[in-house]
Amino acid sequence: MRSLANPGLDPAITMLKILLVDDVRQRLESGVALLQGPETAVFTAGTGAEAIAAAKARRFDLVVLDLEMVREDGPGTCQMLRTDDHTRLVPLLVLAPSGTEDAARRAGADHLLVRPFAEAFLRGEVERLLSLVGRAAPRVCVDTPVSYWRDGQPASGRLIDISRTGFFTATPEPQPLGARIEVSFTLPHPYSGRRVSGEAIVVRRSDGDGKGFGCRFFQVTSASQRFIEEFLERAAPPPEA
Q1: Superfamily for 140-235?
Q2: I need a surface site. Which of 64, 100, 165, 226 has the fewest CB within 10 A?
Q3: C-alpha–C-alpha distance, residues 23 and 45, integer Å
Q4: How far is CA 121 from CA 46, 66, 133, 214, in A?
């Protein structure tokens, strides 16, 4: 990953984080090479305890566990991840040898891929699950000015909503899908004065009455990420009973 123009950005900060859990180094290295990309950061753990320790340090969007571990109990590790408070709500994709599907489901696997499968199929399933994470992220309605730049050209609009993974901007000048923009805005009350800055990728555009575009965060400053999460925690409506 790289920064486009803003030296204040931390390229290690992305909004989509994957944790690979396996005790076979070669498989971990292959998984990182396969899944690391411009919108994802991939981390690794060799045991369930290491995975939980990693989840205490950062929020993951997806955990991928290889059930066929060599030194660890694969189903036991799966069950550990499903019961610990730091990982139990994170989507879990289990890679399981043929004949172990029932054991994986009993251990709490949310999603299952049965070997053998092609690398492209694994990558596609991970992309599908991450897209579901983005759409499921709670959104909060806002109304605040936003400035953005594409290829050095400035533009502006109104921020309409925001989530942990992205935002929607109302503007008479929608940006093309796939465009990467630099963005800057100030969060509204009670976070007035706290500025969010970073880079985003356009993933949706609207040309109707609500003209504008939706973006997924690509990378933001660590302070911006903290401001967004604190704002959402306070502003999001309580879950329905």
Answers
A1: predicted glycosyltransferase like domains (2.40.10.220)
A2: 226
A3: 8
A4: 23, 15, 19, 27
Kindly report the pTM of this predicted structure.
0.59
Contact criterion met (CB below 8 Å) for 212 and 232:
no
Q: Domain 17-136 maps to which CATH number in 3.40.1190.20, 3.40.50.2300, 1.10.10.10, 2.60.120.10?
A: 3.40.50.2300
Would you kindly state where each structural domain of the chain is located, as residue ranges? 17-136, 140-235
Which one-letter DSSP state was computed for residue 77?
A: H
How do strand 180-186 and strand 212-220 relate by DSSP bridges? unpaired
- Residues 19 and 84: their CA atoms lie apart, in Å, by 15
Inter-residue contact 203 to 192 (CB < 8 Å): no
**Residues 143-190 pLDDT 10s:** 999 999 999 899 999 999 998 778 999 998 888 888 889 999 998 876
Q: pLDDT digit string (tens) for 26-81?
A: 999 998 988 887 778 899 999 999 999 998 888 888 999 998 888 888 899 999 99
92 and 109 in contact (C-beta within 8 Å)? yes
Residue 230 token pair:
């604190």
